[in-house]
């Protein structure tokens, strides 16, 4: 999962891109990068680490320009953690493109082979994002009239890209001398939205993964980019858009609402916070059907993303709500940390129990989901060590039983605690006295209650149904092998680039 942002401004945008990436930091803490365009020159800096650690004053001074793109990243399924795979990516032909991508392509290996043998393009990394960039560059070259581009050529290029590419992709791309291009896959699996700001110098535009990046930077939310749609904003601030995919259908990733997105974001017409409250209501009803409420003394969230669901559950069941676990906000998410030993150690660094809230009580812990079970097991142990009498566990999401291939880093079934286990067996594995999972229909209905237009969701990690229709057992086996071979690789240092480019040279 990654966070991306693109800006067409009226003044220097380096600080604006930096601030936006801070607001998207929850979407990835592995690496960060910013690229700006100054005249016909691209300038870029990217490195391993958090936004605040990657960029220093000298880096920001080396990023002049009134437009640009940025990304925060963590490695997706099977990808390497090498410096070269941090984004943005750059290609210099035919027009010079700086590119940032959120998602994961499912046919990138076939595309890479086609790019080499047919399109005569060389790919330098194992990143599916570089493959996607080169597909875009090739289609722009095919659609262009000589050495120049217009809106129609750009949209025809995106249409051709949609016909070739499978998987999840939300993209922002700066085309040198022309403007900012943004587009979303035909299922709209990954989020992308548009914001606008009026200034004395003229209108400014921002495209970002979540609305919180827009609003926190002073932009007004305009709308979501539609599935299959391409949006082009030229350097004068003129916006044009077109539906570029056949049979486009909005099928957003349900895990965005459960876990990844910030609660203060709006995604595809749904308040993430409101969705999580409703998940708590549905979960409360299931708890009431399956447990004696008199056995529960207190409800506690596992901070932070489960807090709305836990609050609503406690209110609906008329149970006491307490904050018994305190989070250290300077430790990264355990879910996206590589290595089981690292995840286990970081849980203790990340959370601490308030003993008086646990001592002698029957506690119902509420989490947004259970993936590997590492965090759940450590927290149950922590609750017992703090003096809890009984420890019950409730998940606002159903059991995660299948790999995700659309950009979430849980690619192999052997890593998932729910694989091959019943609910009772999972409860024993994490050390809980009882375990309640949300039903899949109820989780989906929590979101659909807010926006009834959402008929379907990408929920493959729960139901094993892959909406792109191209996922086989062989694909998943290869994905697991790819992940195993890339484990343990690390980024170090940073990459600073200054690239001169004449906008219409080919």
TrEMBL record:
Keywords: Glutamine amidotransferase, Glycosyltransferase, Magnesium, Metal-binding, Purine biosynthesis, Transferase. InterPro entries: GATase_2_dom, Ntn_hydrolases_N, PRTase-like, PRTase_dom, PurF, PurF_N. The keyword Metal-binding applies. Residues 2-236 form the Glutamine amidotransferase type-2 domain. Binds 1 Mg(2+) ion per subunit. GO terms for biological process: 'de novo' IMP biosynthetic process; purine nucleobase biosynthetic process. Mg(2+) binds at residues 305, 367-368. One of its GO terms (molecular function) is magnesium ion binding. It comes from the Bacteria. Pathway: Purine metabolism; IMP biosynthesis via de novo pathway; N(1)-(5-phospho-D-ribosyl)glycinamide from 5-phospho-alpha-D-ribose 1-diphosphate: step 1/2. CDD domains: GPATase_N (cd00715), PRTases_typeI (cd06223). SUPFAM superfamilies: N-terminal nucleophile aminohydrolases (Ntn hydrolases), PRTase-like. It catalyses: 5-phospho-beta-D-ribosylamine + L-glutamate + diphosphate = 5-phospho-alpha-D-ribose 1-diphosphate + L-glutamine + H2O. It is an enzyme of class 2 (transferase). Catalyzes the formation of phosphoribosylamine from phosphoribosylpyrophosphate (PRPP) and glutamine. PANTHER family: AMIDOPHOSPHORIBOSYLTRANSFERASE (PTHR11907). This is Amidophosphoribosyltransferase. It comes from Bordetella genomosp. 12.
């Amino acid at each position: 999962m990654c966070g991306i942002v693109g800006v067409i401004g009226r003044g220097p945008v380096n600080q604006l891109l930096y601030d936006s990436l801070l607001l998207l930091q929850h979407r990835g803490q592995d690496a960060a990068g910013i690229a700006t365009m100054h005249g016909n020159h691209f300038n870029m800096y990217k490195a391993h680490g958090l936004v605040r650690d990657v960029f220093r004053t000298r880096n920001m001074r080396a990023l002049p320009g009134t437009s640009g793109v940025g990304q925060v990243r963590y490695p997706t399924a099977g990808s390497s953690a090498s410096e070269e795979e941090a984004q943005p990516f750059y290609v210099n032909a035919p027009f010079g493109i700086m590119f940032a991508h959120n998602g994961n392509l499912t046919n990138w290996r076939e595309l890479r082979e086609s790019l080499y043998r047919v399109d005569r393009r060389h790919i330098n990394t194992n990143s599916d994002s570089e493959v996607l960039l080169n597909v875009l560059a090739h289609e722009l070259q095919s659609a262009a009239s000589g050495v120049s581009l217009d809106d129609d050529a750009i949209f025809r290029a995106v249409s051709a890209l949609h016909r070739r590419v499978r998987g999840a992709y939300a993209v922002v791309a700066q085309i040198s001398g022309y403007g900012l291009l943004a587009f979303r896959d035909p299922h709209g699996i990954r989020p992308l939205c548009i914001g606008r700001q009026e200034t004395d110098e003229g209108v400014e535009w921002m495209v970002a993964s979540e609305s919180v990046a827009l609003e926190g930077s002073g932009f007004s939310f305009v709308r979501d980019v539609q599935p299959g749609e391409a949006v082009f904003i030229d350097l004068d601030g003129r916006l044009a858009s077109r539906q570029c995919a056949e049979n486009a259908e909005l099928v957003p990733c349900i895990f965005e609402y459960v876990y990844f997105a910030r609660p203060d974001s709006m995604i595809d017409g749904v308040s993430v916070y409101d969705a999580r409250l409703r998940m708590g209501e549905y979960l409360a009803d299931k708890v009431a059907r399956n447990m004696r409420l008199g056995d529960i003394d207190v409800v506690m969230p596992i901070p932070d993303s489960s807090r709305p669901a836990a609050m609503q559950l406690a209110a609906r069941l008329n149970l006491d709500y307490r904050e018994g676990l305190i989070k250290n906000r300077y430790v990264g998410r355990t879910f996206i940390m590589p290595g089981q030993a690292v995840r286990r150690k970081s849980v203790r660094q990340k959370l601490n129990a308030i003993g008086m809230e646990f001592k002698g009580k029957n506690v119902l812990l509420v989490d947004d989901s259970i993936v590997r079970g590492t965090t759940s097991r450590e927290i149950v142990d922590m609750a017992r060590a703090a003096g809890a009498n009984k420890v019950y566990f409730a998940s606002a999401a159903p059991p995660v039983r299948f790999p995700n291939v659309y950009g979430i880093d849980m690619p192999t079934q052997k890593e998932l605690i729910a694989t091959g286990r019943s609910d009772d067996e999972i409860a024993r594995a994490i050390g809980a006295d009882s375990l309640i999972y949300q039903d899949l229909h109820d989780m989906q209905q929590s979101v659909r209650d807010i926006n009834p237009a959402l008929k379907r969701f990408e929920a493959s990690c729960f139901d094993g149904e892959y909406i792109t229709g191209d996922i086989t057992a062989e694909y998943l086996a290869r994905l697991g092998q790819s992940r195993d071979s890339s484990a343990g690789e690390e980024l170090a240092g940073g990459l600073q680039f200054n690239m001169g480019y004449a906008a219409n040279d080919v």
